[in-house]
């Protein structure tokens, strides 16, 4: 796929990023095994990506209802862990989230794997993950390969408006203008390379439509990959 087609996948604003990225693709960092117990062989995972406020959570709820998936939000799991009494990661996670940065992948992967094991199901939507190339590589090595990557594309102006509205009632430490802008920068710098890495497995949905219209497109994708028997 040419750099121009790849940039088109993400929007015209990504052309400059990809013009440089095509010449230098750092190898994902390798780490030791995490020692995770295997999941059932028929386990299916779909990575769900999109900027902060793109509406991933709402769409995932619809997919759960219609296709029998379990929705796991990497962000929610991290927020729960930082509030868990006695957590060895709580303070670290809290500080990193406040800065809009990425939590070490070993922590996130262990939390996701534990949630999948506890659930006992075989079809999972993993929302907001991976947020870096090495996270995706490590998850697929340690847990299970992703069937495809669902990418919700949304203009930053629209995401900012949604997040500021949510911040009026959410009580989340990262729903403020400073944290939101930091999260946008992190998303651009980390998630675009992830989508490039998975380019042959990416299914893109525009979020400029209504919630219902976005789900109509999403539903077609899942009917293609998971046809009813």
The tally of structural domains comes to 1
Per the principal axes of the C-alpha atoms, what is the gross shape?
Answer: globular
As a whole number of angstroms, the C-alpha radius of gyration is 17 Å
Helix content: 40-55%
CATH classification, class level: Alpha Beta
Q: The CATH topology is what?
A: Rossmann fold
CATH superfamily: P-loop containing nucleotide triphosphate hydrolases
Mean pLDDT: 83
Give the topology string: H per helix, E per strand.
HHEHEHHHEHEHHEH
Summed up, the helix count is 10
Give a short account of the largest sheet.
Answer: 5 strands, parallel
CATH architecture: 3-Layer(aba) Sandwich
- Work out the oligomeric state of the chains in this entry: single chain
The end-to-end distance, rounded to whole angstroms, is 33 Å
Taken as a percent bin, the fraction of beta residues is 5-15%
The overall strand count is 5
Structure described in brief:
The chain has 229 residues and is α/β, with parallel strands linked by helices. The protein has helices at residues 3-10, 15-21, 56-67, 74-83, 90-98, 105-119, 133-142, 156-170, 177-197, 211-225, and strands at 44-50, 70-73, 123-127, 148-153, 202-206. Helices cover 53% and strands 12% of the residues.
């Amino acid at each position: 796929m040419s750099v121009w087609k790849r940039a088109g996948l993400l929007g015209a604003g990504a052309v400059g990023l990809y013009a440089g990225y095509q010449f230098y693709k750092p190898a994902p960092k390798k780490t030791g095994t995490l020692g995770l117990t295997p999941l059932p062989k028929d386990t299916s995972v779909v990575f769900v990506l999109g900027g902060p406020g793109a509406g991933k959570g709402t769409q995932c709820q619809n997919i759960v209802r219609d296709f029998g998936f379990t929705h796991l939000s990497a962000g929610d799991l991290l927020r729960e862990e930082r509030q868990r009494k006695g957590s060895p990661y709580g303070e670290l996670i809290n500080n990193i989230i406040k800065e809009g940065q990425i939590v070490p992948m070993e922590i996130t992967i262990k939390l996701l794997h534990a949630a999948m094991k506890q659930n006992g199901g075989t079809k999972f939507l993993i929302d907001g993950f991976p947020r870096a190339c090495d996270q995706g590589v490590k998850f697929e090595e340690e847990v299970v390969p992703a069937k495809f990557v669902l990418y919700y594309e949304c203009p930053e102006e629209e995401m900012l408006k949604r997040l500021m509205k949510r911040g009026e009632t959410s009580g989340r430490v990262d729903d403020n203008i400073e944290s939101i802008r930091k999260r946008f920068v992190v998303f651009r710098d980390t998630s675009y390379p992830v989508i490039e890495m998975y380019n042959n497995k990416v299914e893109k949905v525009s979020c400029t439509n209504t919630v219902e219209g976005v789900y109509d497109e999403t539903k077609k994708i899942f009917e293609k990959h998971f046809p009813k028997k």
